Amino acid sequence: MKLFDCNCSYGISPRPAFRYARDPAELIAEMDFCGIDRALVYHAGMRCSSPAFWNQQFATEVESFPRLEPTWALLPTQTGEQLPPDEFLAAMKANGVRALWAFPSEHHYRLDGRTFGELLEVMTERRIPLFAKLNLIGLGDFMKEFPDLTAVAVNQGPHSLERYLRPLVDTYPNLYVDTSYYIVEGLIEEFCARYGPKRLLFGSAFPDNCSGAALLRLIQADTDDATKEALAGGNLERLLSEVRL
Amino acid sequence: MKPGNPSVIAREYMERGSSETCPLIDMHTHYGPYPGAYLPAMPPDKMRHALQRCGVKKIVCSAHEALLGDLERGNTLMQEGIDECPELFLGYWVVNPNYPEAVVRLPEDFARTRGFVGLKLGPDYHTYPLTGSGYAPALEYANERGLIILVHTWGDSLFNSPQQVAAVAEKYPEATFLMGHSGFGDFETSVRVARDFPNAYLELTCVYIAHDFAMQPAGSGTPLPLNSYLHVNGIIEYMVENASAKKIVFGTDMPWYSPHYAAGAILFARIDDDARHDICHRNAERLLAKFPID
Question: A63 is in which domain, residue-wise?
Fold first, then answer.
C-alpha cells in the first residue's frame, strides 16, 4: 500500500510540539519511521508567520526531496501581500505547487468570493484542490458560494462533527475530508459505506498529532483493501493528477 | 514502504490489529448515548466489536447518562451494561455533587454494585470544583475503600486542574487518582503531579490528539469553554521521560476515540516496548488486581 500523507508540515512554530521536524530531512526521517511514502507538505511558517515569505522559501527547500510535494498558503491580493491570480498561478507552476491551503483564522481573513473570487474561479476551472482549515459552519457557507471547487475539509474534529459534516458531504460532491482528526471510532467506516471510498484522504496532521496514530487507524480500518488503498494515497494522487496549471 | 519502527509490538498491531502479548486495558470509556455527538460505536454490540478488533481485553466505563443527565438512571444503566458483559466491562460510579443526597447515599449504593472499581468525577461538566466540600464524602469513602477515581481534568480549568488533583491526592492517599486527559494542555503540571504523588496517574484519553475548539462549531461542549492545545506530538515520550511509564494508563473515551488511533500514538512513540507494556496493560492490571473481578 502506498501512503501519501495529505496533511503534514515541518518548520519552527512559536509553540512547538514536544517532537517535530525542523527541516525536510527530519520530516523524511519521521515518514521513514512510520513507513509513509510521500507527503503533501506545508511549512509551519506558512501557517504561523509569513506565507508571503515561506511559500517561496519552502518550495525551494523541498526541491531536492522528491518524496515531499509543496503546497502554498493563500493570502488576499487586496493588501498586496499575494500576487494577482495569473501571476500566482504562474509561480505555482514554476515551483511545482499543485494544491493550496487556506488558514483563515490564523491569517485573519474571510474565505469567500469577496476576498478571493477571481482566484477561486480559476482554481475551480483548473481543479486545484484547496485544503481549508475552516470550521464546518464556515465551510458550508464557502461551498455554497463555490460548489464546484475541489475542497478538502481538514482538521475536522476530534469530536464527532457528523451532524454538521454529512449534510455538506451530501450536498457538495467536490468536498473531501482528511482523516487526521477524523478519529472517532467507526466514522471512517461509515463515511466509506455512505459515500464510497473516493472522498477521504489520509492525513496525519504531523507534528500537531502523531503520524503513527493516523497510520494504524487507517491500516486497521474495518474496510476492504481497495478502500484502504484509495484512502492511503490513491484519492490524493487522482486529485493532483487532475490539476491543470 | 515498511515502517522503520523497530518495535515488535508495533509490527504485531500493524499486521494483525492487536497483540496477544501486549493487549490493551482501557481505563477511560463511556456507555450509552451522548447528546452532543453522533458516535457510531455507541451501541454496545458495535463497541464490543471495535474493542475485539483491537485486542482490548477489559474496559472501565461510566454512563454518559449519569454524567450528563439523570444520575441515578445512568448509574443503573451502567450496572446493566456490566451485567450483560462482565468479562469485558467494569464500571465507575458517577458522583455529581449537585445532588448531595446521592453523595451521602454513595456507600450504600456502591455496596450493592457488581463490577464497579471506583468513581467517575466530571467537575467541568458539573461546574463544581474537585476540591469543594460537595465531593468530600465521596472522596473519603473512596479513600477508605482504596477505590480508583477517574477525574476529568483539563489545564487551567476552574474545576479540575492538575493542581486540584494534587490537593486531593495528598489528602486522600489511599485512593488512586487517574487524571483523565492528563490535565489536557497543562501537561507539565500533570506530569509533576503524577511524578510526585504515588497515587496519581496520567490517563491518555485524547492526549494524543490536538484540540482546536475553534474548529468545532459548538466548542468544547462543556458549560464553560475548555482551552485549546494545538500540538501534541511527542507528548507520550515527554510523559515517560518525566513521570515514568509506570504512571501512565491507556484510555480512549470509547465509544469516542478509536483504540487503534490511541494505540498507534503509543506504538509509534520513541519509547521502548517495556514502556509500551506498562502503558497498554501492566499498570492497569496492577491497579485492578485488588478488585474481586474475573
Answer: 4-241
Class of the CATH-defined domain B8-288? alpha beta
Alpha carbon B59 to its chain's center: 10
Buried b (16+ CB within 10 A) or exposed e, B238-268: bbbeebebebbbbbbbbbbbbbbbbbbbbbb
What residues of chain A lie within 8 A of the CB of B35, using their CB?
Answer: none
B45 and A CB contact within 8 Å: no
Predicted ipTM of the assembly: 0.97
Domain count, chain A: 1
Q: What is the DSSP string of B193-217?
A: HHHH-TTEEEE-TTTTS-B-GGGST
Q: Does A24 contact chain B (CB < 8 Å)?
A: no
Yes or no, beta carbons of A217 and B1 under 8 Å apart: no
Could you tell me if B35 lies within 8 Å of chain A, comparing CB atoms?
A: no
Q: Residues for chain A: how many in total?
A: 245
* CB nearest to A184's CB, from B215, B217, B257: B257
The Cα B118–Cα B123 span in angstroms is 16
pLDDT value for B171: 98
pLDDT at A181: 98
pLDDT digits (tens, 9 = 90+) for A216-241: 999 999 999 999 999 999 999 999 99
Question: What CATH number has the domain bearing residue A70?
Answer: 3.20.20.140
B293 has pLDDT over 70: no
Residue A183 has its nearest CB partner, among B4, B209, B231, at B209
A209 vs B37, B221, B233: nearest CB? B233
**Of chain A residues 121-150, which have a CB less than 8 A from chain B?**
133, 135-137
Q: Does B104 touch chain A (CB under 8 A)?
A: no
Backbone φ and ψ of B90, nearest 5°: -120, 170
What region, left, alpha or beta, does residue B258 occupy, with left being phi > 0 and alpha being psi -120 to 50 degrees?
Answer: beta
